[in-house]
Write a structure and sequence with these properties.
This protein is α+β, with helices and mostly antiparallel strands and 214 residues long. The chain is built from four helices and twelve strands; from the N terminus they run βαβββαβαββββαβββ. It has a domain at 7-151: 2,3-Dihydroxybiphenyl 1,2-Dioxygenase, domain 1. This is Glyoxalase-like domain-containing protein.
């Protein structure tokens, strides 16, 4: 049986507040991201913009108006992540979409989380989230998402003239990371390599020229 293939879906910048995250993107890319919405289950809210066809950028932060019933995703409740984000917002994770999330999770020889039903306004979807809210490979391995049928959510987001060109992913165990990705994902825009710690760098073409988002 051919495993479900994953496609690059979006990049996630985390911040302690949305204001800090939006300011970080403005400094890096020269654009101001508009508001998105809230995720009641996860106790977060976001801002969103397109990075191309069916690809987008998300800035996410804890929502002070919501107390979640579970650990927030993207390690946002981890004190170590809090310390990192206190220094500066960061590009911490990437997300790929799959046609059937449960089937994709069975094909991955790593513990990358369980399928969780999440909503933002009238939109709902399935996404892989470990019970403790952590990120596999410290964010170097992607979160998996299954959108409902219909237009991709990016089609309703602001187009500020930014396009993703390249996503570079570093991790101390890059060979194991590449092996975990191989069953589901292959995209020339995404490269993996070794490094002292998990790190993501996105090269994005903007109205002001090519910029780097970290």
């Amino acid at each position: 049986m051919t495993p479900p293939r994953a496609s690059l879906d979006h990049l996630t910048v985390a911040a302690l507040t949305l204001e800090e995250g939006v300011a970080h993107v403005r400094r890096r890319l020269g654009v101001v991201m508009p508001p998105g919405g809230s995720h009641p289950l996860m106790g977060t809210h976001n801002c969103l913009m397109q990075l191309g066809e069916r690809v987008f950028l998300e800035v996410i932060a804890p929502d002070p108006a919501v107390t979640p019933s579970r650990k927030r995703w993207f390690s946002l409740d981890d004190p170590r992540m809090h310390a990192r984000l206190k220094h500066a917002p960061q590009l911490i994770s990437w997300v790929v979409r799959v046609p059937e999330l449960c089937a994709a999770l069975r094909d991955i020889d790593e513990a990358v989380g369980e399928a969780v039903h999440v909503s933002r306004g009238s939109l709902s979807w399935l996404i892989s989230v470990p019970r403790d809210g952590s990120m596999p490979f410290e964010g170097a391995f992607p979160t998996l998402i299954e959108w409902p049928t219909g237009p991709h959510p990016a089609s309703h987001m602001a187009d500020l003239g930014c396009r993703l060109e390249h996503l570079a992913i570093e991790h101390p165990n890059s060979a194991r990371l590449a092996g975990a990705l191989a069953p589901i994902f292959n995209d020339d825009r995404v490269t993996t390599s070794g490094g002292p710690a998990a790190r993501l760098r996105a090269i994005i073409e903007t109205p002001s020229g090519r910029r780097e988002l970290t």
